[in-house]
Amino acid sequence: MKRIFPLIAIGIVMALALSVQTGCYYDNEEDLYPFTGVCDTSSVSLSGIVKPILQGNCYGCHSASAAAASGAGINLEDYAPLKGWADNGRLYCSVDHGNGCSQMPKGGGRLQQCDIDKIKAWVDRGALNN
Question: What is the pTM of this model?
Answer without folding.
Answer: 0.71
